[in-house]
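Mods, move this if it's the wrong board.
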Amino acid sequence: MKTTIFLKKIKISLFAFILVFASCEDNESIAEPVNETTTTDQEFIEKYFLGEPVKVKKEEDGTFSLQGTDIRLFEEQLTDTKVTFDNNEAPSLEPTNKSKLGLASGIRKWSNNTIVYVIQGLSESVKSELQKSIKEWESKTNIKFKERTNESTYVTISSNGNSCNCGVATLGANGSRGFIRLGTRTTAVVIIHEIGHTLGYIHEQNRSDRDDHIIINYENITENAKDQFFKSTSAILVTKDFDIKSTMMYGSYTFSKNGKPTITDLNGNVLPRRKAQISALDIEGTNSVYPSDTNPPNPSDPCDGIEAWSSSTRYSVGDKVTYSGYLFERDFIRWNQIAKCGNN
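Not the wrong board. Structure tokens:
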């Protein structure tokens, strides 16, 4: 699914996408299909995610599942009321900017471009598919993977015990709570997508500009999944172009209730099937969000060569600025204070 989307210095809004592919028998399945006979609207409550209303259900592990999708959210990533999101807000010296933004613990980047992971209970076949997926991200982007030793922030990759080509994942880095849970028949096409969620990417079809590129056929979507095709006006896009080929993109038959396509291109054609690979824009976007540190800062002054924040500049995830004597880096929803300027 193409969550990914990225462009250096082109401000846009975080791709918001939420996914689960039609059938676990389908090569493109991401999460288990919604069972309308056992999943009722009464189980779900309305919250706000990235400023948009969504339906979520609290799971036994304390996370919240977005209705019918492969994304799991933590309570602090949701709000009870709509929060106005200013994607060009000035950095703040407050530790989290929580009082002003209300989305303090939204979607966090991984430090040092490195996903730290723990494997639990995966079969040898799924481990093999996981290694293919890791190689795909590592060989084409600045992302690195490391098995955990004593790191406090890591993602646990485990089996959900279900016999399907499916998975669910939490968004971004989440201390020790993050996870990717995979079916016993899960392949790289799904795992690559779930890694995208772990990096902080949502689904491509939720971009604010999606109607210029695709048609959403609501009449073909199962009733309890229509909310997952919302458009996010608050997210920060990291690529200038919509990407049908993204690993974060829904398939044409995702959530179909009648075997007809739920998404087509503007000419009514079904989209190409996703492959076990990331697209050119996935690569470009990821390397923008997680840039290579080819020019490490002067150890005596980490702010050396970094421009001051400007209200007239549109910033992207991964950009760095100086503000009030400190170095800040742009995350998916806010500025993070990372160092003090000067020789101190």
